[in-house]
Amino acid sequence: MSADDRLVLEGLQVQAGSRHLVRGVGLTVRGGEVVGLVGPSGSGKTLTARALLGLVDFAPGVVAADLTLTCEGRDHRPYDPLPTRRTEREHAFREVRGALLGYLPQDAPGSLDPAQRVGRPIEAVAARAGQPGDARVWLERAGFSADEAPVVLQRFPHQLSGGMAQRVAIALALARGSRFLVADEPTTGLDAAVQRQLVHTFRRLADEGLGVLIVTHDLRWLAQVAHHVHILDQGTIAETLSASALRPEHATTEVGRRLLGAVGRMRSRGFP
Amino acid sequence: MTWLSAWWHLTWARGRWPQRAAALWLLLVLGAALLAPLGGYAVGADVDLTAASQGPSLAHWLGTDHLGRDVAWRLALACQAFVGPGLVAAVVAGVLGVLPAAVAGLVGGGVALGLRYLTAVVATLPRFVLVLLLLMIYGDSAPLLGAAIGLAYAPELSEAVYGRVEELRRADFLETSLAHGVSWWRLLFLHVLVGAAGGLVARHLLRAFAFTVVLESTLSYLGGFGVQEPWPSWGNMLVFEWGRGLGVAQIAPAAMLLFTVGACASVAGWAGGERHVR
Questions:
Q1: Distance of residue A82 Cα from the nearest chain B Cα, in angstroms
Q2: Range picked from A229-233, B15-19, B156-160 for highest mean pLDDT
Q3: Which residues of B fall within a CB distance of 8 Å from A158?
């Protein structure tokens, strides 16, 4: 991982039938940077994240996109040419998924293989990627202590709490050697203490050179971890703000003022 | 070994004593099928009218039938009649029912439609009738009996696997594995068929085995098909003692049938235990 790594998305368009769900979204994530993607429900945040991984599975789906992942001086462009069938898409994204781009889905416990102890897939993924095969290493990088890691890797997913499952999912992505991580609502179902831990984890991973794109509704949490934030509205990026400027008075669009104003009102009722 | 460890934790370690006893019973039946023929019991030369219809004793643990033949030995030897065909049936049902359905469930579209049409056509025939027809056309032998039962059972297994895989196709853990670069084939075999759907497949294959037990006993009970005298089958042992009073020689094969089919059902339910897949 290095600061020269770059994910550049331009002109993403996603359609479901004749409905335009994402219209010309573009963003850049550099190695070591945390970028947030926020917006009202239905604005196209998750679709954008899934399009980065080639997981948009309805017709016609992605109708235009220019995605470039630059790692170690080499460019990967899975949407060039634009795949029109699932087999083409799977082939195009084969090199990108895992090796370059990791995925942290919203339902972290559900994203783990229920029939395996959590250490096993981590070891298998690391071995296939030519990484150190000891699952404890990756669990510790994901935020478990040296005492917790040996215990956790022997557990099945249903034996983990939401926060533990989230960190195991991060360990899986790291074991794969991903240069970038796409996290979809990583704080869902987590208590404040675990959310705080996740802030430290993402900050540390960014300091190590990982590029992170976080899709979330939780602006207050995102402000603690992101470098800058894109606000999505009706399938387009309405505006972009740095994390230090996440206040209604800095927003230049109605949707930005509305979103940031809602956070402001909650803060004024005494929430920390 | 890691998969074995996982299976152990998710099945045996969670089982209650009736399920474990049922599993041991099935192992006993399997052992009897393999070892009883090596015991030197002379089928066909075992008639001893001086020892007819005796009760249990040290010489004959479960007594004798009305021809003086040892009931315990014949019960053990009768296990061969269905263990072989049962295993063949499980393999045939597995090959015909699991792999095509799993691929169809993952791929969807025209492949799935075609497979479901084919299984619906085969499933319209009652299983017993289909097996009888195949035996009448192609002759009566143990391997053919197993193959016919496997073919007759495949549609049910196929529908179950297709439904499960189609549900799992959208499961988060599959999508995450895909996003981590795991290939579709590895997903299908390791994560879906062995991992998440393995219990379902095991449950149905055990049911296919139980169906073989019942069907073989029925055929030999009715006569004309299945194992014929003097070779023992639980079915022909039952019919052979019919009308000669309710003795051990009649109760024992019925009890064996009941315990074995019940054990299959118990272990099938245990094998298909929850996987916590959401």
A1: 19
A2: A229-233
A3: 276
* A97 vs B contacts (CB less than 8 Å): 178-181
Look up the ipTM and state it.
0.71
Tell me, yes or no, if A186 comes closer than 8 A to chain B by beta carbon: no
**Where in chain A are the domains?**
1-100+216-272
Q: Which residues contact B231 (CB under 8 A, 6 or more apart)?
A: B43, B77, B81
pLDDT at B129 over 80: yes
Topology classification of domain A1-100+216-272: Rossmann fold (3.40.50)
pLDDT reported for residue A139: 92
b (16+ CB within 10 A) / e for B102-121: bbbbbbeeeebeebbeebee
Is B2–A116 a contact, with Cβ atoms under 8 angstroms apart?
yes
Q: Which two tokens stand for residue A60?
A: 């016609």
Q: How confident is the model at residue B13 (pLDDT cuts 50, 70, 90)?
A: low
Q: What is the pLDDT of residues A179-207, one digit of tens each?
A: 899 999 998 888 888 888 888 889 999 99
| Strands of the sheet with A228-233, listed across from one edge | A101-104, A180-184, A211-215, A34-38, A228-233, A236-242
Q: Rounded to whole angstroms, how far apart are CA atoms B131 and B136?
A: 9
* Site from A100, A116, A161 to mutate, B interface, most B CB atoms within 10 angstroms: A116
Structure tokens at B135: 């035996």
What does pLDDT average to over chain A? 86
Q: In angstroms, how far apart are the furthest CA atoms of chain A?
A: 54
Residue contact A97–B175, C-beta within 8 A:
no
A80-109 per-position pLDDT tens digit: 888 888 888 888 888 888 888 888 888 888
CB A211, CB A173: distance < 8 Å: no
Q: Is A169 on the interface with B (CB under 8 A)?
A: yes
d(CA A71, CA A7): 9
Predicted local distance difference test score (pLDDT) of residue A269: 42
Q: Closest Cα partner for A16 from A60, A63, A67?
A: A60
pLDDT band of B2, cuts 50, 70, 90: low
Across the interface, of B180, B196, B278, the residue whose CB is closest to A176 is B180
pTM of the predicted protein model: 0.68
- For residues B132 and B92, give the distance between their C-alpha atoms in angstroms, rounded to a whole number: 17
